[in-house]
Design a protein that fits this description.
Layout: H1 3-28, H2 32-39, H3 54-57, H4 63-106, H5 115-123, H6 129-136, E1 221-223, E2 232-234, H7 249-261, H8 266-277, H9 283-296, H10 298-309, E3 313-323, E4 333-341, E5 347-352, H11 358-364, E6 370-372, E7 388-390, H12 393-406, H13 411-432, H14 437-465, H15 471-479
Parallel strand pairs: 3-6, 6-7
Antiparallel strand pairs: 1-2, 3-4, 4-5
């Protein structure tokens, strides 16, 4: 049989099988999915994929019918392939989101964990930070068989522990001498008393717990026993933050430092005072002290704000703060603290119940200097007509670092981070050499333009290849 005849026989046999299936489907009265399941078919075509009747299928088809049938089959296969490609891309995006959420959940140490290690941590009912750290120091779990050895993360060389740091010399030293036992004070050979020749010295950091006490303020009252008409003279009361409060100025200052510098809420401080000193202080007493101290600091904050607005440069950012309100029981209202500052100078916080444009518009007024932000859209229409907007490279870099965290094989995002690091190295060199503003500006003009061109080219390249909804794709579109 010739090759042409053999190919024709194969086409006729394939066509006959397809025709027989269509005839049986028409006679069965079943739905398409039921018919496919009963026959064990992995792919089942709709009835309209064949444009001829079942009666005509029993006859030898013409070349035109065969060509039409093959074209319909190819179109169906192409559709299935597109759906498969879309599903695979969607799975990749969802895996990136899941890995990012797990890293945010378990902390910075979890960035080095593999997908299998993160999955094991999710199975635990409660995982501490120590367990995450211990897991990050283990060797990665065995990867599936299809993974290539060169794609597996290499074991990092562990650095030797630098040893114990010396305690600062400005701290007061208190000697504690531990004497030898009686047996060590007598020579074992001659029986005479031994002599102290030195000490084995060890330094440890110690602390004296805070001591609460009652300071009794006694103001003298004086009167003349001979002249009753002169009345009684009493010494003036000392100035206090909250005059009629049971709390002294030192206690109020300690409350403020613990709350705002150490992030220790008042209810925890209340519990600590009850535990350490056995004193029961009402939470409202602590609240009143903090609120009154804040009112005293309002003029200081106003002066700092004026100092910022007469300058030429402001950094602005906002951070969410949960606030309890009467209309939302069981959950907090998300408010915001807006931060305005100049590095090394004033830093002012402005509390707002929302994140709309009203907050920065009222604070900045007609400011016409350089405003550096993270690109949040509410900053677009604030300030005076000559205000200059600047973006923040640190915020942009952080997003691309997230892309590398969720996909360690993302070479393009890693290259973006490396280019941004080179830009930061320019300013680091200027700081180390203590350059003036003019010298730093000249250094930037010399080295930054080439790096910025490379960075833009890399971001545009990522836009063409990365998924739009992937971490890398979103960051590239926002940064370019």
């Amino acid at each position: 049989m010739s090759a042409e005849a053999e190919g024709g026989e194969f086409r006729r046999r394939s066509w006959a099988e397809a025709a027989q299936l269509v005839v049986e489907f028409e006679q069965s009265g079943l739905r398409r999915k039921e018919f496919c399941a009963a026959r064990g078919l992995s792919i089942c075509y709709k009835r309209n994929i064949v444009s001829v009747t079942p009666q005509s299928l029993s006859q030898t088809p013409s070349d035109a019918v065969l060509i039409e049938f093959v074209a319909q089959l190819r179109a169906h296969v192409d559709t299935q392939q597109r759906e498969l490609d879309y599903a695979q891309l969607k799975i990749r995006v969802l895996e990136e989101r899941l890995r990012k959420q797990r890293i945010e959940k378990y902390g910075k140490r979890s960035e080095t964990l593999s997908y299998l290690q993160l999955e094991l941590l999710d199975l635990e009912p409660g995982v501490s930070s120590e367990e995450v750290e211990a897991e990050s120091e283990r060797e990665p779990l065995a990867a599936p068989a299809e993974d290539k050895p060169q794609d597996r993360p290499k074991n990092k060389l562990r650095r030797k522990h630098p040893g114990r740091n010396e305690l600062p010399s400005h701290l007061k030293r208190v000697d504690e001498i531990i004497a030898c036992t009686a047996g060590h004070c007598v020579c074992g050979q001659c029986g005479k008393e031994t002599t102290v020749i030195g000490y084995e010295q060890t330094e440890v950091l110690d602390v004296r717990p805070a001591e609460y006490y009652v300071r009794v303020i006694k103001r003298e009252k004086r009167a003349c026993k001979r002249c009753d008409e002169q009345g009684v003279q009493t010494a003036a009361a000392p100035e206090r933050i909250l005059p009629k409060s049971v709390l002294s100025d030192n206690v109020i200052v300690d409350l403020l430092v613990s709350k705002y510098a150490d992030a220790k809420p008042l209810y925890r401080q209340q519990a600590a005072i009850r535990r350490d000193a056995g004193i029961e202080l009402a939470l409202s007493t602590l609240d009143d002290a903090v609120m009154y101290a804040g009112e005293l600091l309002v003029p200081v904050a106003s002066a700092m704000k004026r100092e910022l607005l007469v300058g030429t440069y402001i950094q602005a950012d906002e951070t969410p703060v949960g606030v309890q309100t009467h209309d939302k029981r069981g959950r907090n209202h998300q408010s915001y603290l807006w931060q305005y500052g100049w590095p090394g100078k004033s830093l002012v916080f402005d509390f707002r119940m929302g994140r709309d444009r009203e907050g920065p518009r009222l604070f900045l007024g007609n400011f016409e200097g350089l405003l550096q932000t993270d690109g949040y859209k509410v900053y677009d229409k604030v300030g005076g007509p000559r205000i200059v907007h600047a973006a923040c490279l640190s915020h942009a870099r952080r997003k691309h670092v997230d892309a590398v965290k969720v996909n360690a094989k993302d070479i393009e995002s890693a290259h973006v981070v490396a280019l941004m690091d080179e830009l930061f190295a320019i300013d680091r060199q200027a700081r180390e050499k203590q350059m003036s503003h003019a010298e730093r500006h000249a250094l930037r003009l010399e080295r930054a333009p080439e790096l910025l061109d490379k960075l833009r080219t890399q971001l545009l390249a990522i836009q063409k290849t990365a998924l739009p909804k992937s971490v890398a794709g979103q960051r590239a579109h926002n940064s370019a």
